[in-house]
Amino acid sequence: MTIGVTHPTISYIQFKNIRSVRFWSVSVAIADDDPHSAAALAERFIAQAQVLLPALVVLRRASHADPELGLHLPETQRRVLGALAPLELELHTGTDSSSVVALLRGTSPGPTVLLRADMDALPLQEATGVPYRSNNGAMHACGHDLHVAGLVGAAHLLHSHRDELVGNVVFMFQPGEEGCAGASLMLDEGLLDLTDEPPVAAYAVHVGPGPRCTFLTRSGTATASSSTFSVEVCGRGGHGSRPHEAVDPVPVPAEVVLGLQSFVTRRFDAFDPMVLSVTNLAAGTGANNVIPAAARLSGTVRTTSPEALARLEAELPGVVAGIAEAHAATATAKITTGYPSVVNEPGDHGARS
Cβ distance 27 to 9 under 8 Å? Predict the structure, then answer.
């Protein structure tokens, strides 16, 4: 059998005695000429997944009720290791993070494929009211609890077919996805060196709002890159009753917020989209009659091409500095590039449900 999201015509995870057919965005290979074999194999996997479902729901809800932040997720790691313990897998844990890597070796030599899920939560107070809600000031608002449960389920499903497996599967449970570069630490610790040859492909899924049981993918750029920006505005403080004697920095970020939206929509091609959001504004110390000497703003920017990101880095500081100069203030902008876009190999992709 072949399971893949980026290339429906190429077999990566392989099972003995198969020819290639496809269902959902998963490519499954069968080697005999029975026209019913593809449907039978799909039904068998679905039936096995239904058996696993109750335990995976329990795992997901336990993770949701006890979210952890950043690179160090001891309870999440403990749950993952416990869920994988019944399986014959080679287990590895990180030294600089709470990562978990599990290796499933097939009975015949072949390629290695990597399947990945992220595990960390966000620093949000949950207000959903569900019985398994979090109460510790963090929340799995990005769905990583579901990702963990799904990858544990994939490990159980593929392990049940290990005698048919040609090649190997690496299950990557990653901490620190929310801005902590957890994947980079795992790479440094030998993630791709567990088998004689590095993985020929890596796959991940991400849940999102929308119709249930619908899966989306595409060739080429599949996700936007994620970067952050910050702006420091410097003026001259004074008394609120005598603004003419000060250089008030507060109007500058107010105009920068609007100016950046015009910058994005007027200077960049709509067919090379970009999203820029200002998410933080700060000025002053709380005294209502004091004009502060400085103000700050920051936010996130998503781009879908390296060219757009490079142009943003080159031109955004000038926009900010120009607005500040109009108010006799100064301003500097810093852009920190983060995760790059996911770029899938060429192929015919779309939405399937």
Answer: yes
